[in-house]
């Protein structure tokens, strides 16, 4: 489940960015997300209220994964000397929106999503992270690199880990 924020009060437009998640196992289930700590860089356009308030909803996992609400209240302060460095570091963890692949093809056969991408510059440490779909579970992708071609095969089941849904 992707993180979300429900803002309290009048808020101008806010763009927030998600860093590349990690993949890890919890109770024999492979999941993707953030472990221990995450920084979500944001851009607030317009005049923000004196205090930013809202509720951040994240999936948190220990033995099971549950949606957890984190109410927050932040009073913006004068920019400190480390802000530009910290912001640039946080944005450096956000995946690029375009330019990562020269071509991208997606196909589905019962029980498997197949993503094929080419990149003339080759692949050094590729990863594939998928948004959730109701009642669909995507398992850990199997990645195969051959030169400039990457093929990711993702096992797909329903939420019960049984039959493959029709995507």
UniProtKB/TrEMBL annotation:
Superkingdom of the organism of origin: Bacteria
Protein name: Membrane protein, suppressor for copper-sensitivity ScsB
Record InterPro entries: DsbDN
Residue intervals of the Thiol:disulfide interchange protein DsbD N-terminal domain: 14-72
Source species taxonomy: Bacteria, Pseudomonadati, Pseudomonadota, Gammaproteobacteria, Enterobacterales
The organism of origin for this protein: Salmonella enterica subsp. enterica serovar Wandsworth str. A4-580
